[in-house]
Structures are given as C-alpha cells and as structure tokens.
Design brief:
heterodimer; A: 334 residues; alpha+beta; 13-stranded mixed sheet; B: 2 helices; 3% helix
C-alpha cells in the first residue's frame, strides 16, 4: 500500500490492511495498522495523506487518512467517494442545485478529484437546503434504479450503472449459513410534500396494488417538494434496487476456494471479488424448501478484503438497512 | 573476548561466550556457565486458522505462518564477590534495545553446524539465595528468557545463482560472410554474375550487357559448403534483401541438397518454412526448420519489381542456426533458485549487468510447483496484424496496434494453475506522436482447444506514453484459465483505443496467490538488490554501479512502480526477471538458510 508518495515498505511495513468495496459507492472504508512505537514516524505526518491499496499490483482502493490512533496503531481511512460528503451540491453562484452536472463541476473546482464520466441528470424534489454532492448522486441513482460510486479500477471516473443480470461468482451454501430475515413488503405508501400545494400527500405504489398487500409507510418528505409522478418514480427506482424478496443479514466469511466463476475456476485473490458483482448461492435442501427456489442471486453490497487472507467477507445489498423503507430513508436523510 | 578453550557445547550471545559448568574466567573476572537443568530451546509456534465445514466432518486448517519462540536457560555467574556485579552488567548490557536484535549461537560441538537464533527481546531474573548468602556466595544464578524469531538460521549466508531455464536460445552463426568463395549466383541473365563480400554482408548481382530489362526475376544463391544443424538448434535463419528497384513481394524459399552432390543420396528438398516476410529495417527475416542439416544450400525466389529493372541484386547479411524461431532478446527470462533449508527465508535477489543500466526491472517470484509455469504469453502461437522483429523487445517482436491492429495469443489452458493472474504488458509509444488512451485485454476461454468460447473476461487500463517511450502497464486481474479443463484453450487479445497507438513487445500473466509477488521498479544503474522484509528490516530495493551490496544505495520511492515483498521458499522458487535494457542479465540470491531447530548445513557451502 502507498501512504502519501511512500510505499509502506519504506516505513517498516503496515499490518492488518483491510478495505471494503461497495455496490453503492464503489469504495468503502479502509484501515491498516502501523507499529505504534514507530518513533521514526511522526504521527502528525500521517494526517490527510493519500492512501492507496495495491493488492496483486492492481489499484483496488484509494482515499485518505481519516483517524490515526497512536495508542492502538490503527489508522482509519475514508475513500475518495466518501470524501464527497464534504462538498455541498451548489452551482457557481452558491445556490443549491439538483442538477448533477453542475454540482459535480462545482465540487471538482472545490477539490473533489473525480471525473464525471458522463454521469448527469436532475434529482427530483426542489432545492431547499443543499445536500452533499455525494448524497445528490445517491439520490439520482435511487431515482433511476441504478448504483453510483467510484471504483478504483476505473481510475477517478464515476460510475452510474444498473446491476448486472448475470452472476460473476458462484457459491455453494452448503458451506455457509444465511440468516434469513423474512419477506420484504410488496407495496408502499409514500408520504411526500406536494410541489404545488405544499401539503402532505400519499402516493401508493405499485399501481394497482398487489393482493394480498403487505404495505409499509415511507417518508419521502426529506426529498423536498415533489409532484405525484416524481414520488412514484422515486419509490419505483428504489424498489428496483432491492433484488430478492428474501434477504439475509449476516456477513459471511467465505474461503476463496469455495467461490468459483461460471466455469469452475476459483479466484486466488480476494480482491477479485468486488461489491456490485452478482453472486449466485446454490441452496441446500433446507434453504430450497424455505425459500422455494434452488438458488439465490444477490448483489454483493459490501465485500471486505483483509490483505493476505484466503477468505473474503461478503454482505448482500440491504444487509445494513434491514428493510427497504429504512434504506430509502437512509438516503434521504443525508 | 576470551578464546573458547572450554570443552562441550557453548553458546555465544553477542560477543559473550557461555559454557557448561567448569567454564574458565572471562576477562571481566567472572565465569559464565549455563546450567544443565531448566534449559529449554524454543521452537516456532505455528499460526493456524481453523474453519468448520458444514457439509463434511472435520475442519480445514490453514497455516498462516509461524510466530516467535522463547528460549529459557539458567545462567550462573561465578567469581569473586566484588566482581559478580560486573558480570551481571556485562550480560545485561548486551541485551537488545528497541528495534535491535542480537544473535544467540548454539554450538553443540566443533564441526557441527551451529544454530543461530535472532533474539528480539531478552529478560534476566535473579534467583535469590537469601540475605546472608548474598554476602558469602561466589555465584549468582539468573533465569534468562529470550524471545526470538521463529526459526534458526545457518551461521553463514549462502549465495546461489538464479539460473535461467530453457528460454535462452542458443544461436550460432553459420556464415560470417568474410569470403564469398562459397557462394554462386544465377538469375537467368546470360552474363557472369558477381559475388562479393563487404562488411559482413554478401552481395550478389547479375551483370547486364543487353538492353532487355524485366520486372520479374527468378534467382538462386547457392552455398557449396554443407551446414550441420542439430536437434538442439533446428532453425535456420536468413536475413536478405533484394535491391535494384522497389520489390513488391519479399519472400524466400530454400532448397537443400544432400551432400555430396552426384551420389545416389543426392536429392533436393524444400526446407520447411516457419516464418518470413517480417522486415527488420528493410531486411527480410526468414526462418526455416531443418534439424537434419543441409548439404548444398540454395536460397531462391521469384522477385517482382514495381518497374522494370536492369539487374537484380541480392544481399545476405545473416545466416544462423538457432534453438528458437523468435529473435529472442534475453531480456525476460525465467530463473529457478534452489533454496536450502526448510523454511521460507528473507534474502536478497541480485540482478546485475556488466555495462550500462538495467532499465525497468520486473520481478515475479512464485513457488516452483513443478508444473512448468512461465508468465510469458507471447512465446507460442501469436497472431498479429503488423509484427516487426525487434531485438530490444522482450518477446523478440513488436506488435503494432496501428492502424486497427491487435495481437492475439493462443495458449493451452492447462499451463495455468487455475486462479487469478495479473496481466502486464510492455509497450512502446508510437513512432512520432504521444498516445493517450486505453489498453484493453480480453480473455476468452474454451473447454476444448479450438472449441467455442465458454467464458470471457476483459480488463483495461488507461495508458499515456510519449513517442517511442517504453512502459510497463498493469492491465488488471483475470481468472485463468476461464474454464476448468485439462484440454481447454485460452486466447488473449490486446488492443488499444484512439489513434497513434503503441506497440506491444511483451505480455505476461503473473500468478497471484500464496507466496507469489510481483514488483516493478526502474533504475539507470547496472546492479539491483531486492531484499525481502524480515522482522527487523523493511523491504529494501538497493542499486549500485558496482556489484558489491555494501556499496549500494536505496532506490527512490518515485522509481518504484510496484513494490512487493518477494517470498523465497525452499526447495525451489521461480523468479521471472525482465530487465528492459540488459539482455541476459545475471542474477543470484543470497540468504541465510532457515531450519526449525538444528541446521543440516551451515551455509558456507563446505
């Protein structure tokens, strides 16, 4: 790994390097440990330094130092995607904007070193208080039913893409135990503030409602003032992103030897498995009976790679926010 | 330091020597004796992780290395009461401080290899006798605990040459063209041809006296002395050119006549053509396969010119026999290092060339699994739109990606142990313009060689390279082979986007996995040492203008494109070394030998 413009080997070596790749966002958190008694290293020097992880010679994560802890030696880092939280979505006059192109251009001029790469669009709702550039991009993604972020292999290019429809990796669940959390709702009642009247209205989705209906209320007021059509579009986009009706919530630690590609070859590098890829779990008899399908396709929400480990830790999308409604609100809350 | 004249086993700690009971006095007035009771030499502690499997009984256990060990012994310091304090101080002052190590050497007997432990931390605890005895006794006993690195080392470091394996072609010149007397030329022109030599080049031409000029000539150039080939060097390589006008069909055919002419065995046969039509600065390089030798060699062609010319002139500058059809440059070679000992060892890999500089140095180490793995992808069946031979290219050829070109290599899937590989390419920029775009490698795998593609994957990387600039570019990670099969095939195609595309001279798939490591760094010095990290020193890359490591300095971080901690594991580690400016660079490896408890050999080679 690289710290500033030095390789960690020049500093006596870093230990316990861990980084996350995400479906939403591309790059997540990272951390590493430096020997706490490194007198040769002024801990103040670490502050703000760019961090890059290069497992197997391929850049897989980059960001900067966030919190060095001298007592434990643990240095926490945030990725350049997460740094987008620090740039408000404004236009060049300083007014808040919902146009993604304008917001990114302004964030770039303030120092967010990303390339727009053609990502554009206008987020629904009226500009009230400005959200961060990163939150605006996440809202755009939710609206379009896509995922947005920054993936290390694409350099500094942002991505806005639909989920893959074919699995990249295959895992036999005889080997892992998925903890099931039950069925997701199949309808929503979205409460939003109408664009013209400013009053609270409700939009039911989908239309017509399925029968029997399992409805959850969702608070869309955080998006600002919306029209009836915009509210529907928001719920539809977010619903597209939650793939399985049944979801599991535990983080799975899977050895690489138990993951294969479509033709039976296992990766020998944990960094070859990334957030955003689709994984097919083949289910054992008990799983098939409880879920009613022989396999479960899911998008990897978060993949955690610990350098040198022969295992990789996987979490599906939606693992953190337990229900769809919560995930929609989690986006709107930023 | 007192010369050890005492008998029996001894232990050296830094510059102190401990003996068994009855040891003689040291210069500070005390004897240092190791008690026979209570001594325990530590052995490495294995670090393992256990995973419980659901589908079968038992758990899988993986060993992730070994951790430090602890050696404990009782040391008796014996001497006059007023000297005992000085004895304790002598021992205590040798303990390692922060970030220091000391050597603890156990010698069982003269002539038996000594076991060296690298001590990281030491403690001494006084074994108290009593208040009154403290004033009367002539000895004090201490319990010494030393925490040391997991394995014992041999006393000396061993240096092993890292010899290249099978890929350096043997090339011998068949004719140096110092005299043209062996050669005769005929071209259908009635008058006597001229055959001369100048500067190592054979020049042959017809002489013309009439007014009849043509645009096409059939000519023959015959060498009367026989050529001995061998199974080890079965390829005959010719570089020739035809002058006199603009040639529209460069090409060559070769005949051989069994020697001696006129005997019943004398017959002409066409030698098997391997590759040709590849130009090297205007010269055409043709390769023929003829392991059995040639009697009377005849080169010939029907050459067509764009306009009518008076006389055809043929020049030949190279006639060689070789073990490889490609003009191998010797810049990228697979080497094996035989490592003695039983445990992986930190050591220094030295790469050196006699003159000039190494240039970009790419090193990939992997355990030699005996499966014949070599990272090179361009040594076999390569198809490209515009190849040109190039002695400065690692593969021997430059594959131009202009104007709409790509280069495809087809390989046997079974040569890759299934897993993840990092693809790296060596490119040269366009002849006149700089390039900025994307280099793409797509991998297609089939279940049976030549069958339909069942799995495909693509990686790409941005590339910026100035005109004629040379660069190593990491394209990304791929899974090879894409299909698990013993008879499958893998096809890798490299192409580039945009205009003014570069040329590809090398393409490698470096295995990723346990104990595999890839490093890329560049230097303008002729010697480089890559040292693996160990407990006390970080990884080092040192360079020097002389071949002595003591006179080397650290390569700046800016010159290191990709560092790695190379692992050297006995019995054998493969090291693939590419040095862009240094053909056939020498390489050797120096390291201590590591054993678990007692070394079998001391590393001095005797």
């Amino acid at each position: 790994m690289k710290i500033g413009d030095l390789w960690d080997h020049d500093l006596g070596g870093a230990d316990n390097t861990v980084f996350e790749t995400l479906a939403d966002g591309g790059m997540g958190d990272a951390s590493f440990t430096l020997a706490a008694d490194s007198d040769a290293l002024a801990w103040g020097w670490l502050k703000g330094k760019t961090i890059e992880f290069w497992p197997d010679g391929v850049l897989s994560w980059y960001g900067r130092v966030h919190e060095p802890d001298r007592e434990t030696g643990l240095v926490r880092c945030i990725s350049r995607w997460q740094m987008g939280d620090g740039f408000p979505a404004l236009d060049e006059t300083g007014a808040s904007t919902r146009d993604v192109t304008t917001a990114i251009t302004q964030a770039q001029s303030l120092g967010w070193a990303v390339s727009r790469n053609g990502v554009s669009g206008t987020v629904l709702g009226d500009p009230g208080d400005p959200v961060s550039a990163k939150a605006l991009l996440e809202m755009l993604a939710t609206q379009e039913g896509k995922r947005v972020g920054l993936a290390a292999e694409a350099g500094s290019n942002l991505f806005l893409r639909s989920d893959p429809t074919e699995p990249t990796w295959f895992i036999a669940t005889d080997d892992v135990r998925l903890s099931e959390i039950g069925e997701a709702p199949n309808a929503f009642a979205g409460r939003y503030r109408d664009a013209t009247t400013g009053l609270l209205e409700t939009r039911y989705w989908p239309s017509p409602l399925p029968s029997p209906v399992e409805m959850d209320p969702v608070d869309l007021t955080k998006f600002g003032r919306l029209t009836f059509a915009e509210a529907g579009a928001l719920i539809a986009g977010a619903a597209e992103l939650s793939l399985a009706d049944v979801r599991w919530s535990n983080a799975l630690e899977v050895p690489l030897t138990h993951i294969t590609n479509a033709n039976g070859v296992s990766p020998t590098s944990a960094a070859a498995v990334k957030g955003g890829q689709m994984v097919r779990f083949s289910l054992d008899v008990a799983g098939q009976q409880s879920l009613g399908v022989p396999y479960l396709d899911t998008i990897l929400g978060k993949v955690t790679v610990a350098d040198g480990s022969p295992t990789v830790t996987l979490e599906p999308v939606g693992a953190v926010a337990k229900t769809f409604a919560e995930s929609l609100e989690a986006v709107a809350a930023r | 330091m007192v010369q050890p004249t005492d008998v029996g086993p001894s232990m050296e700690f830094d510059d102190l020597v401990f003996h068994g009971p009855g040891a003689s006095m040291q210069e500070f007035g005390c004897a240092l004796e190791v008690s026979d009771d209570g001594i325990e030499f530590g052995s490495s502690e294995a670090v393992t992780s256990v995973m419980r499997r659901m589908w079968a009984d038992g758990s899988s256990v993986s060993q992730d290395g070994a951790d430090n060990a602890e050696t404990v012994f009782f040391l008796r310091i014996r001497g006059p009461l007023h000297e005992l304090g000085g004895g304790e101080a002598a021992v205590r002052s040798r303990f390692p401080g922060q970030h220091e190590t000391r050597r603890l050497v156990f010698r069982p007997a003269p002539g038996v290899p000594a076991a060296v432990r690298i001590v990281l931390r030491a403690e001494m605890k006084l074994q108290w006798d009593g208040f009154v005895e403290a004033g009367l006794m002539d000895r004090r006993v201490y319990k010494i605990t030393m925490v040391h690195a997991p394995f014992v080392q041999s006393e000396f470091e061993a240096t092993v040459a890292a010899l290249p394996v099978g890929e350096v072609p043997t090339v011998e010149s068949v004719d140096e063209f110092s005299s043209g007397s062996d050669w005769s030329f005929s071209s259908g022109r009635p008058s006597t041809p001229l055959v001369t030599v100048a500067g190592g080049v054979l020049k042959a031409q017809a002489t013309h006296t009439g007014s009849n000029i043509r645009s096409q000539y059939s000519w023959n150039l015959t060498r009367s002395t026989s050529i001995t080939m061998s199974a080890a060097t079965p390829y005959l390589i010719v570089e020739h050119r035809v002058l006199g006008g603009t040639v529209t069909n460069p090409g060559l055919r070769l005949f051989g006549m069994d020697w001696p002419a006129g005997t019943p065995m004398d017959r002409a046969r066409m030698l098997r053509w391997v590759s040709g039509g590849l130009t090297v600065d205007g010269w055409t390089r043709t390769v023929f396969y003829t392991p059995k030798g040639v009697g009377r060699l005849t080169l010939g062609a029907t050459t067509a010119f764009s306009t009518e010319v008076a006389v055809p002139k043929v020049e030949v500058r190279l006639l060689q026999r070789s073990s490889s059809p490609a003009p191998h440059s010797g810049r990228a070679l697979l080497r094996t290092i035989d490592i003695d000992g039983t445990e992986r060892t930190p050591g220094a890999l030295h790469i050196g060339t006699r003159t000039g500089s190494l240039g970009t140095v790419m090193v990939h180490t992997s355990p030699d699994a005996g499966d014949g793995y070599s990272p090179d992808l361009l040594g076999g069946d390569v198809a490209a739109t515009s190849p040109t031979a190039g002695a400065d290219s690692p593969s021997g050829w430059w594959y131009d990606l202009n104007p709409a070109g790509n280069v495809t290599t087809r390989l046997d899937g079974a040569r890759f142990t299934p897993g993840t590989y990092t693809l790296v390419a060596w490119v040269q920029g366009h002849a006149t313009e700089s390039y900025s775009g994307t280099l793409v490698a797509s991998v297609a795998s089939s279940g049976r060689m030549g069958g339909p593609t069942l799995s495909s994957e693509s990686v790409s990387a941005p590339l910026t390279v100035p005109a004629l600039g040379l660069r190593a570019i990491v394209l990304g990670r791929v899974t090879l082979p894409g299909v698990r099969s013993k008879v499958g095939g893998v096809s890798i195609t490299v192409s580039a986007s945009g205009t003014n595309r570069p040329k590809v001279g090398g393409l490698w798939a470096f295995r990723v996995g346990y104990d595999c490591a890839l490093s890329i760094q560049a230097t303008d010095q002729p010697h480089m040492w890559l040292s693996a990290a160990n407990l006390t020193t970080p990884r080092e890359v040192l360079v020097s203008d002389v071949g002595d490591r003591a006179q080397a300095w650290a390569l700046g971080a800016a010159s290191i494109q990709m560092p790695a901690s190379h692992v050297f594991r006995p019995p054998r580690t493969s090291a693939y070394v590419f040095a862009s400016n240094a053909p056939n660079a020498a390489a050797d490896f120096t390291s201590p030998l590591l054993w678990q408890n007692f070394p079998a050999r001391d590393g001095s080679g005797s």
